[in-house]
Amino acid sequence: MHRAKGTRYEHAAEQFLSSRGLRALQRNFSCRLGEIDLVMLDGSCLVFIEVRYRASSEFGTPLETITPRKRLRIVRAATVFLQREHRFREQSCRFDAVGITGPDEALAFDWIKNAFSA
Questions:
Q1: CATH of the domain at 91
Q2: Residue 28 Cα distances to 40, 71, 74, 78, 103, angstroms
Q3: Which of 60, 86, 99, 103 has the greatest number of beta carbons closer than 10 A?
Q4: Measuring CA to CA, which residue among 38, 23, 21 is closest to residue 81?
Q5: Residue 39 and residue 88 in contact, taking contact as beta carbons nearer than 8 Å
Q6: Is residue 61 helix, strand or coil?
């Protein structure tokens, strides 16, 4: 059940970002070192995106749940992605985060470009 819910909000984030010009490359890239929810292109920049959802921000925003340990796992997974995908090795990269709140019929998105660095 939890995975299906995560997939639903990752898809919503992908649609949101696509409507702002990003192009999807891969969903749920996973390796033993970590996972990346979305890998997209913003022009020529490769973007690794963490998606977080909370029904409400009453006890903190979704983006506040991205811990230093989680950021490290995303950076490590991005390194593996770049090692496997030779075509992207020379491209500029960034790490974005998308926080989603609210009920499914009225989702609110908080997109932070360059949310953290490697």
A1: 3.40.1350.10
A2: 11, 15, 11, 11, 23
A3: 99
A4: 38
A5: no
A6: coil
The domain containing residue 93 runs over which residues? 2-116
Number of domains in the chain: 1
Beta strands in 21-85 (DSSP E): 23-31, 34-42, 45-54
The chain-wide mean pLDDT, for the chain, equals 92
Q: Nearest CA to 80 among 48, 112, 114, 40?
A: 48
d(CA 109, CA 56): 12
Hey, how many other C-beta atoms are within 10 angstroms of the C-beta on 118? 13
pTM recorded for the entire structure: 0.92
